[in-house]
Specification:
The protein is mainly beta. Helix content is about 5%, strand content about 40%. The chain has 2 domains: about 10-185, Jelly Rolls (Sandwich), CATH 2.60.120.1390; about 185-340, Protein of unknown function DUF2961 (Jelly Rolls). The protein is built from 3 helices and 27 strands. Strands 3, 5, 6, 11, 13, 15, 20, 21, 22, 23 and 27 form an 11-stranded mixed sheet that branches. Pfam families: DUF2961 (PF11175). This is DUF2961 family protein. InterPro entries: DUF2961.
Length: about 375
């Protein structure tokens, strides 16, 4: 017998009574304990609440020291994460690494820069209004990806920068319901900077097991003039080798747009819909920001790409135009986040990125004030 549809897959399911119970982890209740919220007597808000006392926003956030890792959540037993809300200063969006471990695994199923996971890979805010990810002013990040686990979950946030970081967050989850028929949530990040000559950018490869691919986010930096989105995305499934089972027709086609994302007279046009969008276009400013940057997502929620034995490879080409209407292979800066569900809690993944791998060069160069005291980095 096949597993029942996920209870959140249809709006009609909201009326169904279920045996599960809701819990939440935040700086006001670090372990999600029943009746454990609002009990803090010390924390980042203690001074602000000095006239009010316990129960009045004593511990709304946490500070992660430079080079250290915070346990966002540790959950024992079976359950399903249903929502993550989190925020921090924009300077930290590419210096924080988000990880998730399922069922006591030593290797993470999720290892993605904080901003990229929430479709804001360039360290510049972009409104995202999709079903699975919502990014709201000014940096309120939300994930609605269901993340089931059978014996436990562990979410962490590593600060790879040289300054302390203040983070506000809430992880909501359910316990008490059978999740045995559900796959484990995986997210992998890979950057080509610059892309090798005449070589596609690889989003994911050599994943063994049964599952389905459900999402792509790409922060695409263009390193040349002209159109950049003629490249095809390809999905190599199960026994595919030289040729893929699924082959797209162009980059803007895959992300749900057409004809260069160009409304005549307006140029590149941002859009954000439930399952696909290009919510971010960063244009040159005539000074230090010399290249165009884009953020695009595609959620395969209504059309998951299913595989039985393995996800052999997903890659995308970077192509423009040259004389004579010939394709021009490009060497762009492409950072992708690939999301899929798998029948096991670990999978082959790229190496952990270094701070240099993560760094975004948007070109902003403030004029120094000679003799001035260097400012302290803000925590919030």
């Amino acid at each position: 017998m096949s597993a029942p549809a996920h209870p959140h897959s249809e709006l009609a399911g909201i009326s169904r009574l279920r045996a599960s119970r809701t819990r939440s982890i935040s700086p006001e209740n670090f372990d999600g304990a029943v009746g454990g919220g609002g009990r803090a007597t010390e924390g980042t808000g203690a001074w602000n609440a000095r006239d009010l006392g316990p129960g009045w926003k004593i511990s709304p956030s946490v500070d992660i020291k430079a080079g250290e890792t915070l346990d966002l959540a540790r959950i024992d037993g079976a359950g399903r994460i249903t929502h993550i809300w989190i925020t921090t200063h924009t300077d930290n969006w590419r210096t924080l690494l988000l990880r998730a471990y399922w069922d006591g695994a030593q290797e993470p199923a999720v290892e993605v820069p904080y901003g990229d996971f929430f479709c804001n890979g360039w360290g510049v805010f972009s409104q995202v209004s999709s079903q699975m990810i919502a990014a709201n002013p000014h940096g309120g990040f939300n994930s609605y990806w269901p993340m089931p686990f059978r014996t436990g979950a562990h979410l962490t946030l590593e600060n790879t920068s040289t300054v302390d970081v203040r983070v506000y967050y809430q992880v909501t989850y359910e316990v008490g319901e059978d999740v045995g028929g559900e796959g484990y949530f995986h997210a992998q990040w890979h950057r080509s900077n610059p892309l090798e000559d005449r070589v596609p950018h690889v989003l994911v490869e050599d994943v063994e097991g049964q599952g389905h691919y459900v999402g792509t986010y790409i922060a695409w930096g263009v390193n040349s003039n002209g159109w950049w989105g003629e490249g095809e995305i390809k999905f190599y499934l199960d026994d595919d080798t030289d040729y893929p089972t699924i082959c797209g027709t162009g980059t803007e086609d895959y992300f749900g747009g057409a004809w260069n994302f160009d409304i005549p007279g307006q140029g590149y046009t941002e859009f954000s819909t439930p399952y696909l969008g290009m919510p971010q276009v960063i244009r040159p400013d005539g000074l230090y920001v010399s290249q165009q940057r884009f953020g695009m997502y595609r959620w395969h929620v209504a059309d998951p790409i299913r595989f039985e034995r393995g996800l052999r490879r997903v890659d995308i080409q970077a192509l423009g135009w040259r004389s004579g209407w010939r394709y021009l292979p490009l060497r762009d800066d492409i950072a992708s986040t690939a999301i899929f569900y798998l029948d096991r809690p670990t999978a082959r993944r790229p190496r952990t990125p270094s701070a240099d791998d993560l760094e975004v060069h948007l070109g902003t160069a403030p004029v120094p004030d000679i003799g001035a005291t260097p400012p302290r980095a803000p925590l919030a």
